[in-house]
Amino acid sequence: GSTPDVVSYNIVINLCAHTGRPQEAQNWLKQMQEARIQPDEVTYAAVISALTKANMVDEAIDMLGTMEDMGLRRNQVAYARVVTGLGRAGRAREAAAWLFQMEEAGFKVIAPVYNWVIAACKRPPNAELAERVA
Asked: Across-strand partners of 122?
């Protein structure tokens, strides 16, 4: 067999993200690091995706910090997952703050990301914030 590389680990971690298994995604990241294979932006974005899909948004935000600590740049996918995760959790102000950070970092924000923030403004109602986001 061939030796696993960053791409093969990323495939497995993405599979964990898509199937709602955040702990397994984190375990694969740990195994990858123990194997001395350097995770990349794709790796971290996949773990962040797995965490936010499981409503583990604070852990996802921590993972963004870890990503930066490793010298990696936050990417569009990682930002979008954090924003949508916060929106899904009804944390409108935090979601909007991350959305604005995403824009300031020069990333294009797609409509579904805006929609999650605006939807979060409904619980509790926050028309002023929704207008700022829109």
From this structure: 125
The torsion angle over the Cα atoms of residues 117, 121, 123 and 128, rounded to 10 degrees, is: 170
Q: What are phi and psi of 125, to 5 degrees?
A: -55, 130
Helix runs in 35-69, H state only: 41-53, 57-69
How does pLDDT run across 104-120, given as a tens digit for each residue? 999 999 999 988 888 88
pTM, two decimal places = 0.88
**β-bridge mates for residue 37, sequence order:** none
14 vs 86: CA distance, rounded Å: 20
Which long-range contacts does 103-109 make (Cβ < 8 Å, 24+ apart)?
105/74, 105/79, 107/75, 107/76, 107/79, 108/76, 109/80, 109/83
Interacting residues of 40 by C-beta distance below 8 A, sequence separation 6+: 6, 10, 72
Q: For 4-51, how does the pLDDT look when each residue is reduced to its tens digit (9 = 90+)? A: 999 999 999 999 999 999 999 999 999 999 999 999 999 999 999 999
